[in-house]
UniProtKB/TrEMBL annotation:
PANTHER family: PTHR47267, PYRIDOXAL PHOSPHATE PHOSPHATASE YIGL (PTHR47267:SF4). NCBIfam families: Cof-subfamily, HAD-SF-IIB. This is Cof-type HAD-IIB family hydrolase. Keywords: Hydrolase, Magnesium, Metal-binding. Belongs to the HAD-like hydrolase superfamily. Cof family. GO terms for molecular function: hydrolase activity.
């Protein structure tokens, strides 16, 4: 009976400095040696997550951009879904993005409307992933996996309400953090992508162990037979999965500790 472990990154598998610690890496390497399949599921870009997988030291499928992209352990793309270009162009206009830092993920990188070195220093200093400053309001809308709006939560809830009012059925919209609102195609989610990976590997979802902390993990945990919620998780995730066990925080190696108990790793 083959088993799958799927984990979010920031706030879940990564520590407070957004790094893979040695204890977690050793845990995942021991699981891989037992033949357990591993998947990383994150809002981050594929080009960024490849380096994090290397830090874990395991072979793993990568669900990135909240499910808009899926790659196999050899980096072959096996699923991709973009926003409709006309819709993407509308979402990139100032009337929608005013008061936020506008970001876009495309296959070959990360586009922003203005310089934001503070983001690189916090999240990407180890991977080397970086952005390109472009005039996003003039972007064609082609090939966009997701659009990110970064601002304080109150400003983003207003943007969220505006997008839902105008385009509710045409998008999947979620918060990956209180200060980051993300918009993808309506068929995109970590849960849908996980279903694709499980089907490809012939693994029953009942034998899947999933770990998350954010609103964008709701669908993923719903797919898995064994969902686990971090103690530092979003209240919306805890409300959506009231019966899921709450485990230690990301800074307490919560995922690694739980997996060592489940799979009897010393």
């Amino acid at each position: 009976m083959q088993k799958m472990i799927v984990s979010d990154l920031d706030g879940t598998l990564l520590d407070i400095e957004h790094k893979v610690d040695a204890y977690t890496a050793a845990t995942f390497q021991a699981l891989a040696a037992q033949g357990v399949q591993i998947t990383i599921a994150t809002g981050r870009h594929f080009l960024d997550v490849k380096g994090i997988r290397e830090s874990l030291g395991v072979s793993a499928h990568l669900i990135t951009s909240n499910g808009a992209r899926v790659h196999d352990p050899d980096n072959n793309e096996i699923f991709a879904e973009n926003l409709e270009p006309e819709l993407a162009r509308a979402l990139l206009q100032p009337e929608m993005s005013a008061g936020t830092l506008l970001n876009v993920y495309v296959d070959d990188g990360w586009l922003v409307e203005r310089d934001c070195p503070e983001l690189v220093g916090v999240y990407y200093k180890d991977s080397g992933f970086n952005y390109q400053v472009v005039d996003l309001k003039a972007h064609s809308g082609e090939g966009i996996a997701k659009i990110l709006y970064i601002a304080d939560h109150a400003a983003l809830t207003a943007v969220e309400a505006k997008i839902i009012d105008q385009y509710g059925d045409e998008v999947y919209i979620t918060f990956s953090a209180d200060d980051c609102l993300e918009v993808m195609a309506p068929t995109v989610s970590k849960g849908h992508a996980l279903t694709e990976v499980l089907g490809r590997l012939g693994i029953d979802a009942a034998h899947c162990y999933a770990f998350g902390d954010g609103q964008n993990d709701i669908q993923m945990l719903a797919v898995a037979g064994y969902p686990f919620v971090m103690s530092n998780a979003s209240p919306k995730l805890k409300t959506a999965h009231p019966h899921a066990p709450v485990i230690g925080s990301n800074n307490e190696h919560g995922v690694a500790e739980q997996l060592r108990k489940i799979f009897t790793i010393e």
